[in-house]
Design goal:
single chain, 645 residues, alpha+beta, Butyryl-Coa Dehydrogenase, subunit A, domain 1, Butyryl-CoA Dehydrogenase, subunit A, domain 2, Butyryl-CoA Dehydrogenase, subunit A, domain 3, 20 helices, 54% helix
């Protein structure tokens, strides 16, 4: 598994408040002192996460950032010809055994217990197979899979059961495993990781509170040191995979600063630790509860050290792996839908003809195949970036948003509408799982909120380099409402305006190289070249948006979300184009080309041509007789209420 560069500076070396200029800029933008402080804390946490990575792997050197802001297009970072990390031989038998465990229980009808949760027996057998230790190195009892191995395996598991696949991500990516691997000291790793690897103790991540979700600065859970323990008080909400006897990484406040404690929960609820149960439609087969802590003790030695960061630094770090895992899970769940659509379309007849021969159904199957292949492409690409050591913040956000929206589209527009009224029967794949299919649009960060985070990461360096000097000059000169027609204002701003003008002129007069991709398949080449050109030209639109709104940009959420969405679409087009051009399977290449063209039409504002519709329906017709990779082994649900005797 790829490692990141960990800083060795003292824990307080970068505990910086918001700079006076930044604070003043936010206040000039109409923010209250409280909001200024909270936004500054989030920005500072994000900056500290960057220091965990070598410069070449930080956001400013990521594929998306370079594609937008640099003259030469970084095509090599969108095109991984082979896995960038050596796969772990020890992980392969673990994966096969884990798939066998879940498939056997699904076929026997024993996957769920009497409460309709994944049964303890299944969890135990998965532990014996090594499932819970895939991301943990052999020195701690795991099999040390690369993240690319792990993520692509999750797609295979999700095609059998998406909940079981999701629990591996909760445990290994956002639970206690990743924080310990990244921030734990040798003692913490030796004490805690072996039980997490074996599954003797499964893990969860306790961050969300009744008033703290997207606003992580609203934390109220506190821990106060008392001798060799911290005494924890507070409430957590919507915590997946929590039960007595498990291990939590808990984000709380210690001396007013966010911190993370790794806590072993007792085997039974007591007066210090209680679960808060509620009805929840999503994640119905997993344990998801609130938690009440009342004078709950956690050993001081279980506090993770973020070096020159804090608890938010630790919380932010692990989220990217969870976002890629979500996209991988969607690729598997949509394979389930594709197999189910095909089974039903072969069975269902209208006017004496199976509906699988109807154009609309063929179009839906072709579109669904395209969504699957694009999710596969994003999964491999983002996992590869993480294995290389990139932070991958923006890229993983793209994977999460696209994967969740693709799954939503597949479930509602393609799967449900093809099955008609039977979709709502109890026991139907859609009817029983609709909330689980939609929940990823919210979990791991709501889509449009994440889109704005993507935009802010994209513009941060440009803003610091060209816009902050203007604001700093205005602040020092006491100019609150600049007027370039005023000679004194123009003179005060002469240097920052000259620097910005030089950037603007350079980008408008230079011809970018690297936007032609002769190595790509002809079916996607022109769309990929259009997407690359769009990304590079988007720098002008982004900068113009920043000029127009200036200090009010943070409040222009709709504009940020819309522009962010278009940039993300271009990224998906590029990633999918490079992916399908490396594939030998004809169905994969055609499905990827269909999705790339659909996205190109969306980005250009064009209607689909008749030729495009013929390609989609032809693909759907061929999926009647041929299998997209990973679909042949799917256990197709039975036809409910068949009308034939």
């Amino acid at each position: 598994m790829a490692t990141v560069q960990k800083p060795n500076r003292p824990a307080t070396s970068q505990k910086k408040p918001v700079t006076s200029f930044a604070s003043e800029a936010l206040r000039l933008g109409g923010k209250s002192d409280d909001e200024v402080a909270r936004m500054g804390a989030v920005d500072a946490a994000d900056d500290r996460v960057e220091t965990l990575f070598a410069l070449r792997y930080q956001t400013v050197n990521s594929p998306v950032h370079r594609a937008v802001w640099e003259k030469a297009f970084p095509a090599d970072l969108f095109d991984f010809e082979q896995p960038v990390a050596d796969p772990s031989p020890a992980a392969e038998p673990v994966m096969r055994a884990s798939l066998d465990v879940v498939r056997r229980h699904v076929q026997a009808g024993t996957l769920l217990d009497d409460n309709r949760k994944v049964s303890g027996q299944v969890m135990h057998e998965l532990g014996e197979a090594g499932y819970w230790g895939l991301l943990i190195g052999p020195e701690y009892g795991g099999s040390g899979a690369s993240f690319t191995q792990f993520a692509t395996f999750l797609t295979r598991m999700a095609a059998i059961d998406p909940t079981v696949a999701g629990l591996a991500s909760v445990h290994g990516c956002i639970g206690a495993v990743d924080p310990l691997l990244t921030f734990g000291n040798d003692d913490q790793k030796n004490r805690l990781l072996p039980d997490l690897a074996s599954g003797r103790r499964l893990s969860a991540f306790a961050l969300t509170e009744p008033g703290a979700g997207s606003d992580l600065t609203a934390l109220k859970t506190t821990a106060v040191r008392d001798g060799d323990d911290y005494v924890l008080n507070g409430e957590k909400l919507f915590i997946t995979n929590v039960l007595p006897g498990r291990t939590l990484s808990i984000v709380c406040l210690i001396d007013g600063e966010p911190a993370v404690l790794v806590a072993k929960l007792p085997s039974e609820e007591n007066e210090h630790f209680q679960l808060k149960r509620y009805g929840l439609y999503a994640l119905q087969h997993a344990h998801n509860y609130g938690i009440m802590f009342r004078d709950f003790r956690v050993p001081v030695e279980n506090r993770l050290d973020a070096k020159d960061g804090d608890g938010l630094t630790i919380a932010y770090h692990g989220l990217n792996r969870g976002r890629v895992s979500l996209c991988a899970n969607a690729a598997g769940a949509m394979r389930l839908m594709l197999a189910d659509i095909r089974s039903w379309a072969r069975f269902r007849r209208t006017y004496g003809e199976p509906i699988i021969h109807r154009e609309l159904v063929q179009r839906r199957m072709g579109e669904l195949a395209g969504l699957i292949v694009a999710c596969d492409a994003l999964t491999v690409w983002c996992a590869g970036l993480l294995d290389l050591g990139y932070r991958g913040e923006m890229e993983c956000i793209v994977a999460k948003i696209y994967g969740s929206e693709a799954q939503k589209r597949a479930a509602i527009e393609l799967h449900m509408k093809t099955h008609g009224g039977r979709s709502f029967l109890q026991g139907h794949l859609f009817g029983d799982n609709v909330h689980d299919f939609l929940a990823p649009c919210i979990y791991e960060g709501e889509g449009e909120m994440l889109g704005m985070a993507f935009f802010k990461s994209l513009v941060k360096q440009h803003g610091r380099q060209y816009f902050e000097p203007i604001g700093r000059t205005l602040h020092s000169a006491g100019i609150r409402k600049p007027n370039l027609a005023h000679p004194a204002h123009l003179w005060a701003l002469r240097k920052p305006l000259r620097d910005y003008s030089a950037w603007w002129l350079r980008h408008h007069t230079s011809r970018s190289s690297g936007r032609t991709f002769p190595q790509l398949d002809a079916s996607v080449r022109r769309h990929a070249e259009f997407a690359a050109k769009f990304l590079q030209q988007s720098a002008w639109e982004i900068s113009a948006t920043m000029r127009k709104h200036q200090l009010k940009l943070a409040d222009r959420q709709c504009r940020m979300a819309e522009l962010s969405s278009r940039i993300q679409t271009a990224v998906v087009m590029l990633c999918t184009s490079f992916h399908v051009s490396r594939q030998s399977d004809d169905l994969v290449r055609r499905a990827g080309a269909v999705e790339v063209e659909r996205l190109a039409n969306e980005l250009r504002g064009q209607r689909p041509t008749d030729a495009f519709l013929r390609r989609v329906t032809s693909l759907g017709a061929d999926l009647d007789e041929q299998d997209l990779p990973g679909v042949a082994d799917v256990d197709v649900p039975p036809i409910l209420m068949p009308y034939e005797v």
